[in-house]
Amino acid sequence: MRVPLSWLREFVEVPADATPEDVFAALVAVGFEEEEIVSFDVTGPVVVGRVLEFVEEPQSNGKTIRWCQVDVGEANGGVRGIVCGASNFVAGDKVVVTLPGAVLPGPFPIAARKTYGHVSDGMIASAKELGLGEEHSGIIRLVEWGIDPEVGEDAIALLGLDDVAVDVNVTPDRGYALSIRGLAREYALSTGARFTDPGLSDVAAASGFSATIRDEAPIRGRVGASEFVTRVVRGVDASRPTPPWMVARLTLAGVRSISLLVDITNYVMIELGQPIHGYDLDTLTGGITVRRAREGETLETLDGQTRTLFAEDLLITDESGPIGLAGVMGGSKTEMSATTTNVLVEAATFDQVSIARTARRHKLPSEASRRFERGVDPLIAPVAAQRVVDLMVELAGGTADTLGSSLGAVVKREAIALPAAFVPGLIGVDYAPERIRETLELIGCTVDDATDGGWSVTPPSWRPDLTDKWTLAEEVARVDDVDKVPSVLPTPPSGRGYTPAQQGRRRVANALAAIGFVETPSFPFVAAAQNDLHGSESGAPLPSVRLANALDQTAPFLRRSLVPGLLQTAHRNLSRGMTDLALFEVGSVFLPDPGTEYGTDVNPPRGERPSDDMIARLRAAVPPQPRHVALLLAGNVAPKQPGRAAEAAGLEVALDAIRTIAVAAGVEIDVTQAARAALHPGRTGVLSVGDAEVGYVGELLPQVAADADLPGRVIVAELDLDLLLSLAGERVVVASLSTYPAATQDVSLVVDAALPAAELRGALTEGAGELLESIRLVDDYRGEGVPEGSKSLTFALRFRAPDRTLTAAEATAAKLAGVAVAEHRFGAKIRD
Q1: Top-level CATH class of 207-408?
Q2: CATH number of 500-598+618-728
Q3: What is the CA radius of gyration of the chain?
Q4: What pLDDT sits at residue 70?
């Protein structure tokens, strides 16, 4: 919010010698953030001149210039010769002359210089060159600005170019501060300066104009418009210029000057914080009705676009149909123009949620919607409407009419009980009761004594953010001086660290990073097709959580799998030349139960621990969110080197990573061949711990990889990390490692080709007993010497005893015991 200091001084006593930095310091002391100082950046001699005569001189480039004789006053050197390219003035016109030594925005220094065969001793300025607008096709004719100053008068002061504004950041909960009125009050709170509230004027109600509020579809039970005030001004002269002081203030406030009538409505909006809209009364058909849009309705807004309306949109309509998007932008049909003579002024209070949704839905943010979204004082509308009427009478020559309307319910704020000891106890500062009461009254609250020694506090109409005793306590701390609040670090309880689950997740992430994977967190938002493809085994649709207000409408669902995020990350890296990828992510997935509705409103109490029942309800309001870990491999795991070819990433690398996860989690993971919708048949495995399925691994189908713009083979794996860690149970510490040597043996078994290697491995492990330290599949052979429909699986076995050196006979006996179990269970035979 930009605040011109001359404007601020109209409502609060700012010292004449106060600098912008002083005003910043005062506003920062009550919780605002300073942004920048804004000025016109015009310095030096800029004066009023009179064009005595000029000679038009055509040039070889096709342009015609005027060689002018301009009187700038005896004190400024009398008559000066100036070259000017504009042609919108005549002899005798008073203009703005920038003399040598002046500096205009840019910076653009002015000096006497030779041009077009003359020495131009200064420059006749346009509005754009002075920073007063975008018009640069012609110079400023002061007669058109409605002023007739003396020749030689200082034009910087005359046009308000000596004013300066401070720009402060206003947080969304403090909408009242999006006005000169609001920030003047805050300056007064900070400095103790006397503040005059322009919103306390008594305004007589008008009647006779038909205005109706009809809202059959309120949002969350809130009617779209709670107040609607209209006033009529007749006989305005829309061709009159906007006064220079108003143009300067609007410009410093960041608002472009358009025309006198529009400028007046914008001026009052910035001054009082109440958005105002003006209609050309003669273009209206009948009265005005505020209602929701109907299907198929359209509206051409002031920006010239025809917009298709939605059922939730709140409209301003007359008997011909929509004439404005309430609180956002008016319609072109009834806009005030250069031919307008009679004006209907509208000041209303619209629902914050309704206006915010409409502005976002149509991608149409405006200064009006910005204020309505944050909350407008419901009592200021009549005052603002009357202020616009008064300015149109004063500046546009209009006449105030008694015709108008005043709709709206009685505004009543509920009182808040504030115990006497609550504020000191919450803030940690020993405030005197008198100071608490004084501070609350300063911000506009009505404070009455309560029977228990505290107060009954009624917040002012312009502070919708004051809703309970906590927000009142924050106001006391903010206004009294937040620097008084002590900085006390809480003492952390001893003996607490990461939970076992947190420790497990960190071990898994650190282990993957240690073997060369890179962690790449991603947004949890996906499209429905991605959830169906990667979030289920068959690819059939499963329940997904849809966001009520998605950041990206193409990805409105919460993910059921981490794989879509890894695919997007891989695509971004590949598009930037990173072709060899080993990525992983640890994060939550969202798995709603079929038929269960989530997101119901549950409001826990503030300032105290929720009950067990409330905690249960909070947990029931969100879907299950287990943490998963997922991997993605693409390209090569080892680059090409002298004497060694590149090693492409394959399933064996992913399986090694899964074994690393298993060790970090403290479990043993078995791999069994399976099928999955997005993965290649024959190159997909299900991951299990005992009888519990914990995830999958496999190669993406070529078409799935191509749809993700990923060339070549892409390997993915995903595991339920929470389930994995729960199956690990408590981690035990091994007492000691055996110092005796190991005995190694290999065994090749011929089995049915359809038998998963993991099942055969399990049988060998079971039969070999406690002496077996490790077992690893080293070969899968199918060919000559092996019967058709069979395969030969070779396992490397390692045996070790904790108390002795094993003999070869003992190792062989243990191996054959495992073979016996495999033979009994699967008909396995030792390969000759």
Answers
A1: alpha beta
A2: 3.30.930.10
A3: 39
A4: 97
Q: Which residues are paired to 718 by β-bridges?
A: 630, 696
Whether 566 and 522 have beta carbons less than 8 Å apart is answered as yes
8-state DSSP, 43: B
Quote the tokens at residue 55.
């000679």
Tokens of 556: 């409105």
Give the tokens for residue 458: 């009624």
Which residues make beta-bridge pairs with 319? none
**pLDDT tens per residue across span 36-95:** 999 999 998 999 999 999 999 999 888 999 999 999 999 999 999 999 999 999 999 999
Place of tokens 């906590």: 470
3-state SS of 270-304? Answer: HHHCCCEEEEEHHHCCCCEEEEECCCCCEEEECCC
Angle at 282 between CA 280 and CA 283, to 5 degrees: 70
Bridging pattern class, strands 79-84 and 64-71: antiparallel
- Comma-separated ranges of CATH 3.30.930.10 domains in the chain: 500-598+618-728
Query: Which residues make up the CATH 2.40.50.140 domain(s) of the chain?
Result: 46-158
Percentage, residues of the chain above pLDDT 70 = 99
Give the fold, CATH level 3, of 416-484: Phenylalanyl-tRNA Synthetase; Chain B, domain 1 (3.30.56)
Instruction: Encode 166-225 in three state secondary structure.
Output: EEEECCCCCHHHCCHHHHHHHHHHHHCCCECCHHHCCCCCCEECCEEECCCCCECCECCE
β-pair partners for 644: 641
Topology of domain 2-40+164-196 in CATH is Phenylalanyl-tRNA Synthetase; Chain B, domain 1 (3.30.56)
Q: For residue 500, what are its two tokens?
A: 């076992």
813 burial (CB, 10 Å; 0-12 / 13-18 / 19+) is middle
Task: Give ranges for CATH 3.30.56.10 in the chain.
Answer: 2-40+164-196, 416-484
Cβ(327)–Cβ(372) below 8 Å: yes
Q: Are 718 and 563 in contact (CB under 8 A)?
A: yes
pLDDT tens-digit map of 421-469? 999 999 999 999 999 999 999 999 999 998 778 999 999 999 999 999 9
Where residue 734 falls among pLDDT bands split at 50, 70, 90? low
Contact 115, 83 (CB under 8 A): yes
> Which tokens sit at 333?
């049909």
Question: How far is the first Cα of the chain from the last one, in angstroms, to the nearest whole number?
Answer: 88
Query: What is the Cβ-side half-sphere exposure of residue 768, based on CA atoms within 13 angstroms?
Result: 26
Whole-prediction pTM: 0.68
Where do the CATH 3.50.40.10 domains begin and end in the chain? 207-408
Torsion of CA 182, 187, 188, 194, to 10 degrees: -90
Per-residue burial over 228-259, b = 16 or more CB atoms within 10 Å of its CB, e = otherwise: bbbbbbeebebebbbbbbbbbbbbbbebebeb
Domain 743-830 sits in CATH at 3.30.70.380
Rounded Cα distance between 581 and 632, Å, is 7
Q: Which one-letter amino acid corresponds to residue 59?
A: Q
CA distance 324 to 451: 50
The dihedral through the CA atoms of 9, 10, 13, 16 has a sign that is: positive
Residues 6+ apart with CB under 8 A from 98: 44, 45, 46, 104, 110, 122, 123, 124, 125, 129
* Cα→Cα distances 302→251, 287, 332, 358, 584, Å: 21, 20, 5, 16, 51
Other C-beta atoms closer than 10 Å to the C-beta of 89 total 21
The Cα–Cα gap between 327 and 324 comes to 9
pLDDT digit string (tens) for 130-177?
998 776 668 999 998 889 999 999 999 999 999 999 999 999 889 999
Contact (CB, 8 A) for 765 and 750: no
* Signed CA dihedral, 435, 436, 441, 443: sign only: positive
